[in-house]
Structures are given as structure tokens and as C-alpha cells.
Amino acid sequence: MGQTVSTPESPPPEESTPTPASEDAAPPPMPDFSAEPVPAGGDPALSALETESKSVLLPPTSYEEHYREAMEMLKGYETFENFKLEGMLPMPFCALTCDLRSGPVQYQGRMPERAAIRGLNGGFADMVQVMIQQPEKGHLGLRLMLKATERVTFMLQGESTREASGGIAEVGYTGEMSQTNFKFCPGFLNLQYMRTLSQHFALGGEAAIMAPGVWSLGLAGRYCLDKTVISGMITAMGAAQFSYVHKCTDKFMFGGEGSVFVGEGGLQYEKVFGMSYALPTMGTLRAALHCVSGRAVANLQQPLVFVPGTCTAILSAEADLKAVAKGSSKPVKFGLGLQFIPM
User: Fold this and answer.
1) Are strands 283-290 and 295-303 parallel, antiparallel or unpaired?
2) Is the CB of residue 340 less than 8 Å from the CB of residue 87?
3) Region Disordered: what ranges (predicted)?
């Protein structure tokens, strides 16, 4: 009896003991399997489809950069006269750049000035950027940018001249599919928002208060295809802008921009047509024609591979077609520049 009783009692513990041991070894795959349906709503294939659909959406862009392709091709380069030299000195935690030129420097709303040193820039650990412009001519500009997190950025811009001085602060937030910017200074508030709505379309708006009782609203959108970008903007102050850029090949693209605004003389408009072409042996050529003002500008950038480091030669040209028709003495301006980054 004792033997028969002991034999049935011993097997159950033996059967129960290996079973929990095997269950304890199985949990590693079990939690992983049970955790997969939670974010995807119960279907792993659906989660893969959602992540793929998010990856093909347009990256968020700010309201002011809704026409960045047209701005870069038509106005993303400057024309200068005589000679200029740009250099950058990279350091472990910062980078210093200096801009020297002998020709006139054109500031918005002021007469051209001749400058020896135009700018001195510095960046620290890719988070803080400081810029000082032309201190010896009574014009001092400061730009401070701090990247607090991957999504939040603070920016402070200040300018001081012999006549007046001022500054503006900006806070930017970058979401997964949106970009928000808030600017403020004494007597001025501005809120901008841009959101990606689909794989090809993004829409945004702007609200600004410039003075007591003076406000403005704006609406902007951009439509992107594989080789075409169409953007437009309209404001309540009576301004509108439209741009079109088409990439024919990897080396050639063309586009145009039209704008209408209310100026001192009433309703004014501007039309610009331009192109960008990567020459086989001479670098990148960008040219634009301003139809209303009659200005034709061109910029050629050629990397110099025989110089140690990164060196680029720049050839700038600007022609006043209206002055050429009138027989002006100096209708064309040329400039030669050099950008250098040591190894």
C-alpha cells in the first residue's frame, strides 16, 4: 500500500515541476508576441503599413520656407562687385567664419556701403550660433540660435545702426508632420503654422499683429511631385506670391516666381524666371531674369579640387538691361569670390 501510494504521489510533482519550468522558459517570446498588437491595433501588418505611410509624407517645413526651392534657385545667391573672400575655421566645439570684401555691400533700405569686414560668425557644438556683421561701419548684427531639444529651437536676432536699433525673438517647434513658429518683439506678434496633410500637399497659415489695430492674416500651401514643386501664398494685406520649380534632370532645373503687393505707388508686381545647370566641367551655373526691374543676374560656382581642403571659386555678374538700352556707362557689374575651408 505504501508503495502504491508513493508512486502516484511522486508522478504529479514530477509532471508539475517540468511544466512550470518550461513555462518559465517560454515567457520571453510570449510578452513580445502580446506586445506587438498593442501599438498596431491588433495587426502587425497594419503597423508596418502605418509606419510606411508616415515615412513617405512630406517633411515638415516652416511657413516662411514654403517656397524654399524657388528661393534657393532664384534668390538663394547674392551678386557682388569686385572681390570677396569667405573662410571658415572648424574647431572641435565651434566654427568661425569670416567674410571680407572690397566692393559695395547693399543693405535693404539703405545706400550701398564699402566694407572691409562684413561678417564674423561662430557656431558652438551645432547648437548655438552667433553672428556679428560689419562692426566698423556702425552696423552691428547679432543672431543667436539655441537648439534646446530635437523639436524646440530658440532664436534671437538683433540689429544696431547709427539711426536705430531693435531685435526680435523666435520660438520654433517641429512636430512629426507640422512646424510652428512664434515671433515677438515690442509692438509685434507673429504666429506661423505649417502642416503636412498628405503625401504631396502641405498647408499653413499666419497671423500677425504689427501695431494696435493693425493685423494681418496669411495662407500658404505647397504641392510637391517627384520633379515639380508648386507653392503659393496670399495675405490679407493685399500681397500674393506664386512659384513653380521643375527638375528636368539631375543637372538642370528651371522655374519662375510671380508676386503682387501693395507698395507706396499702389499695386506693384514682380516676375522672376531662372534656371540652375550643373556644367560638366565648370561647376553650377544659376541665372535669373527680373522682368519688371530689368535685372539679369548670374552666379557660377566652381570647386577647386587642386587646393587642400574645400575651396570654391565664385564668379558673379549682374546686368541692368534698362541701363544697357539707355547706353549707361556702367550697366554690368562683375565680382570674383573665393570660399575656403581648411582641412
Assistant:
1) antiparallel
2) yes
3) 1-46
Residue with cell 503687393: 261
Q: Name the amino acid, one letter, at 210.
A: M
Count other Cβ atoms within 10 Å, centred on residue 221.
17
Confidence of residue 325 (pLDDT cuts 50, 70, 90): confident
> Residue 233 is placed in which grid cell?
501664398
C-alpha R_g of the chain: 30
Question: What is the helix (H) or strand (E) element at residue 152, kind and residue range?
Answer: strand 152-160
Would you call 24 helix, strand, or coil by DSSP?
A: helix
Q: Are 246 and 173 within one domain?
A: yes
C-alpha grid cell, residue 71: 528661393
pLDDT at 97: 72
d(CA 178, CA 63): 10
Q: Which residue carries 569686385 as its cell?
A: 82
Domain count, the chain: 2
Q: How confident is the model over 184-196, as pLDDT tens digits?
A: 998 899 999 999 9
Contact 198, 57 (CB under 8 A): yes
Quick one: CA torsion of 277, 283, 289, 294, rounded to 10 degrees? -160
Are residues 265 and 178 located together in one domain of the fold? Answer: yes
Same domain, 305 and 202: yes
Of 210, 162, 160, residue with least CA distance to 189: 210
